[in-house]
Amino acid sequence: MTTNNHRVAVIGGGMTGLAAAWALQKARKQMPIEYELIEASDQLGGKIQTDVTEGFVIERGPDSYLARKESMTRLAREVGLEGELVRNDTGQAYILKNDQLYPIPGGAIMGIPTEIGPFIRSRLFSSIGKLRAAQDLVIPSFTHENEDVSLGYFFRKRLGDEVVDQLIEPLLSGIYAGDLDTLSLQATFPQFQQLEAKYGSLIRGIKASRGKQSQSQVGKKQGMFLTFRRGLQSFIAAIEQHLDEKAIRKKTEVRFCEREGKRYRLTFNDGTVQTYDHVILTTPPYVTGRLLEPYVDVDYMREMKATTVATVAMAFKSEDLHIPYEGTGFVVPRKSRYEITACTWTHKKWRHTTPEGHALVRCYVGKPGSESIVHETDEAIVEQVQKDLDQIMTVKREPLFYKVTRWKKAMPQYEVGHRYKLEKVRQELKKAMPGIILAGAGFDGIGLPDCIDQGEAAVATVLEEIL
């Protein structure tokens, strides 16, 4: 690297790090910047891993992103992959209760009922549970501005235990793989608190928000999610191809980060040392904390929880799998006796993933506080998953093949107080190490577009400080 240029290190080659590297790649056309993207493993992409076997496109980690969060679509356009985007097929989603699947009531937004008819007709809840949920319309706002409470406390107070345990919890836990009664409202879904404050009711607030949709949004129902025809890893590959090959360092682990005047010395696992003006850290909080420990109080990053989960993909011939429901999959309440937490009928939700005449099912295991199954052998995990599925659908033969992927400490938990504790860390960091910037799924959002936003925001901060 040219020492006269402003040098930036991006630590971590997941979605956040890649977005930051791409932003720096573009910025150096106008500014004297050099960057390095440093990744400890032998490939970029983090939890984004696509397996292509016998014509099946199988995502081992995330499988899509919310289409309304446009930063990922924009980035796909910039790297020439917009034409590869596909939207999910819509279909009924279900909740598993007592060995039977019940349709999620029509009009439910993140489990919050907004249409009276479908909610009243639903057999998922008792009459008492329905009456309790209706009290949301008369219960006054009970949280103050900037007050943080758990998601569980907030929703139970407004809608009651039954709707939370049977509907909201399995839906939201599918996003964060966490415990609703410890997850932070402010760090996950602050918009619900804002709706409560403005309308005095979640049901009224969401109905009012939906009523503001433009006519262009009304009509044929579209899938909410997007992915790539050849899998999410094709997106990672496209970004990598647009980066400077010489700026990418794989199989490189940062052992030490030391301040040296206004710059930072990074010592790598091979013994080499490099000096940078800015360092963007996109590593998991416990890794980030280890690097910063000599300079700031990192107790929160060290103590921050992350849950362990596993995905199980199973491929079948169509005639060997009978699903007596029309839809795209189901979620499972945490308090159920099942080990699976969710199941996607992938061949119905994402038709491009499965060869004609075949079926693809993707299940998830690992509950907060009950993750032991993830540490079992592949065979034991698949056996348990099949045992659970046998209660819901007919599996006539063993799968053609299966893929088990374990993600240990992979889902960061934004517990109550997360935003305040994180802000304290950042304030200390700004004083002690002003050239260090924190970003990534462990901090300000776990979705892929959220990670892209964080990577780009980190680079924007670097550029502001250079100018």
Give the % helix.
Answer: 25-40%
Main sheet? 7 strands, mixed
Task: Report the mean per-residue pLDDT as an integer.
Answer: 94
Give the overall shape, derived from the CA principal axes.
globular
Task: Report low-confidence residues grouped into runs of 5 or more.
Answer: 214-219
Percentage of β-strand residues: 15-25%
Strand order of the largest sheet: 8-7-17-18-19-15-21
Q: Tell me the radius of gyration.
A: 23 Å
In words, what does this structure look like?
By secondary structure, this protein is of the alpha+beta class. The protein contains 16 helices and 22 strands. The strands form six sheets. The protein has a seven-stranded mixed β-sheet with strand order 8-7-17-18-19-15-21. A five-stranded parallel β-sheet has the order 10-2-1-14-22. α1 packs parallel to α10 and α1 packs parallel to α16.
Task: Reconstruct the topology from this structure.
Elements: E1 6-11, H1 15-27, E2 33-38, E3 50-53, E4 56-59, E5 65-66, H2 71-78, E6 85-87, E7 93-97, E8 100-103, H3 116-121, H4 127-134, H5 151-159, H6 161-176, H7 185-188, H8 190-199, H9 202-211, E9 225-228, H10 232-242, E10 248-249, E11 254-260, E12 263-268, E13 273-276, E14 278-281, H11 285-292, H12 299-303, E15 306-317, E16 321-322, E17 329-331, E18 340-345, H13 346-349, E19 358-365, H14 378-389, E20 394-395, E21 401-412, H15 418-432, E22 436-438, H16 448-466
Helix pairs in contact: 1-10, 1-16, 5-6, 8-9
Describe, in short, the structure shown.
By secondary structure, this protein is of the alpha+beta class. The protein has 16 helices and 22 strands. The two termini are 21 Å apart.
